[in-house]
């Protein structure tokens, strides 16, 4: 074979190999299906709203879709403790309970949007209800761990000028020792099945 003919054959073979390599590449990933407003925003399909509230724009919207049959009735909240006891709420139930908790913050505690409230609880269902209630009302939640001492609580309440605190039986005595030194503190809510003088029982109001 002449030199120039062999060059043409090699060029043709290289071209065919390139075509094969191109055809062997995996197909592009499918375009994700937009199923929620927040997904549309994250994908650039919708503009970012000027005002956004997770409780209203997500939880309540999914509750509506659930009631209309557009979403399966999957649990919105599923809590299980070490003993096997569990609490399970649908989106509608979570919305209803969190609105009741929001009424407590606004009506009983007199909290307004921007007011600060300290929440010191172990991971009980009440913790999530109060968190969503703060989103609904615009109350600023200051979370704290159950290991806080009286000194820790006093510093946080004074620095934040918190108007309310919600805690459990374990920390209520420590709050009582320092509450007189926190002039901004107006209401104390107790998450418990028992009562305590000077405290408002959150669970009784929720029922």
Automatic annotation (TrEMBL):
It comes from the Eukaryota. Its cofactor is Mg(2+); Mn(2+). It is an enzyme of class 6 (ligase). It catalyses: a medium-chain fatty acid + ATP + CoA = a medium-chain fatty acyl-CoA + AMP + diphosphate. Keywords: ATP-binding, Fatty acid metabolism, Ligase, Lipid metabolism, Nucleotide-binding, Transit peptide. Its EC number is 6.2.1.2. The keyword Ion transport does not apply. Residues 72-193 form the AMP-dependent synthetase/ligase domain. Pfam families: AMP-binding (PF00501). Belongs to the ATP-dependent AMP-binding enzyme family. This is medium-chain acyl-CoA ligase. It comes from Mesocricetus auratus.
